[in-house]
Amino acid sequence: MSSAAEQEAVADSYAADVGHDARRAPVPSGTAPVAAPAPLVWPGSSTPLGARYRVGPDGVAGTNFALWAGGAEAVELCLFDPDGAERRFPLGELTHEIWHGFVPGVRPGQRYGYRVHGRWDPWTGARWNPAKLLLDPYARAVDGEFALPPEVYGHVRDWPDQQVADTVRDDRDSAPFVPKGVVVHDDDDWADDRRPKTPWSDSVIYELHVRGFTMRHPGIPEKLRGTYAGLAHPAAIEHLTRLGVTAVELLPVHQFAHEDHLLRRGLTNYWGYNSIGYFAPHAGYAATGTDGQQVGEFKRMVRALHAAGIEVILDVVYNHTAEAGEFGPTLSLKGVDNRGYYRLQSDARRYADYTGCGNTLHVVRPQVLRLITDSLRYWVTEMGVDGFRFDLAAALARSMHDVDMLSPFLAVIAQDPVLRRVKLIAEPWDVGSGGYQVGAFPPLWTEWNDRYRDAVRDYWRGALPDVRDLGYRLSGSSDLYAWGGRRPYASVNFVTAHDGFTLRDLVSYHHKHNEANGEGNRDGTSDNRSWNCGAEGETADEDVNALRRRQLRNLLTTLLLSTGVPMLVAGDEMGRTQGGNNNAYCQDNEIGWVDWSLLEEGAWRELFELTSRLIALRHRHPVLRRRAFFSGRPHADHGLRDLAWFTADGAEMTEDDWFASTTTVGMYLSGRDIPGRDARGEPVVDDSFLAVLHAGHEPVAFTLPDAPWAERYEVVVDTGMEEQREEPGETYRAGTTVTVPARTVLLLRVA
Predict the structure, then answer these.
(1) What is the pLDDT of residues 147-157, one digit of tens each?
(2) Fewer beta carbons within 10 Å, N or C terminal of the chain?
(3) Residue numbers annotated as active site
(4) What is the DSSP letter of 42?
């Protein structure tokens, strides 16, 4: 503990360096920083932002540091030695609100942070507090774990009167308790990498968690499980290639922090939707080290997936950060310039919260827009990724208040020469007023289509939407996306996602069972649109279990035959269960991890094989992955309509049928009437198919449509069978009446 006199002397020294009375912001108690002579910091450059190792004037190697802090009065760069000793360097250069300096001799591996000086005036949104060490928003690697002791809060967290606690500044030093940025040298040109560049229409997405996918895989060495290196391991990639998916969509891999309420319960934020570093791969997923090694490990993972023909899409969380609201910690942006980065209410103490997580980034502001787009370009150009899924994307599309499809964020993305070329997926909603925007995002964007999810779940659980709603969802949702040049692949079709029941739990539970989360089972949605098939949870009743397996086959077959881009969730193809937990965001354990032992059980191995066969069928047949919407009309003289709907008696549906609900639907896809041409300009011609979906609890007699639709039909898929045979199966003459078992999909090829 330094003496009061020593602290006063240090404060006087800072006042001389930074040009203001530092005694208004007392130096926190603890080890006094090592003084640094002014010449050790050269002016440097205001661009690029962040810490960049390079050769400076006179060929001297060092690192340029640049931080946007618009309203700050002074900025100190803090360098940390291996033993934790801190050295502070005032950044004296200020260009266009960017504080910058070049420090000779600072090399890759150097740990650093910032202290930013300014007014403490929460009533106007000003929350500068130099006692708090701040993570560089542009840090490319982070070393250390985020804990949340009282010292990391800019205010006195445990102030007796909690109503005003956020207004009382905490002057304790946070440096011993927070992670540091790491200087990283990046000279990789990706010359040896070949991006798959899979067209949207050919894509099959597989959503997975880097840690959860690899933690229990017996073929991955134990030291690599839960890491980027584990996902790059041949055993992990072999499963993906056998399955046939074209892209992995990784749950958040930006550096994230855990929430205080979880840490208090002995839990962590497993999913990672709590970002704090938009340029840094999450250090907890690195097997090789966290002094910058995580960057190279992530790149090697991307290269390995690309070599297998698999694209990498990142689930990104630019709508909010881990700093939460006024009672949250001060980790980075809040201490750099709270008013410059976050949306505040008219009462500037409070945050505008369109995310349900305490804060919302103010994307309308140029510096915030720059942070996001710089981050996106970095992950594409320097980390090799192929696209992004934007969490709560409607929050990014808000102008001042309302969602605006002409917003600065969407406009910048549309004209950016790097970002407009990658895959862009919107989660098209947020929790604010007017935030539900399914079908509203502009061309270039695809969207998670929750209306597809709801219609398919309802149909197979017996809630029976009308044929019109189901028909639109199965055929690409043209009612949502057939505008502005958008295509069927604007719809990312899914039945399950990380958020909610797994596919197996969807047919095994009627109610959520989230007790392990420690929130009294209040968290997670109660609107699951699930059906437990007659028993809640695991059961020894073989009839119930057989029905559940059939329902899984129905759901997967429906998804993979639908027009649009299918998305699977890791483990659904082999019956993964979370025990009825539909909000496993804090379950970094067997609840949230993929159980690979399921593949050793015959029934679940059969489910995997069926899923793989359906994906292969989709890849072989362009009629199942159309690049244009169906018209319902023939595309050639004397041709057939490209899409037709049939009732169980073999007749085409009437308008009355279209607006009614039914347990049985026949969908005819004509391979002779596919619009467009192939890469050589030739017409695209394929087989035609008839899909019969029967959700009734009793068998139904279905008459196969006669001429001109077909002469004969071959059974390709029959979900009523426990063990799937290799195609083709039985052959039927057109006009034959076949018995479709209860709750079954028949896929027949027109012969």
Answers:
(1) 899 999 999 99
(2) N
(3) 391, 427
(4) B
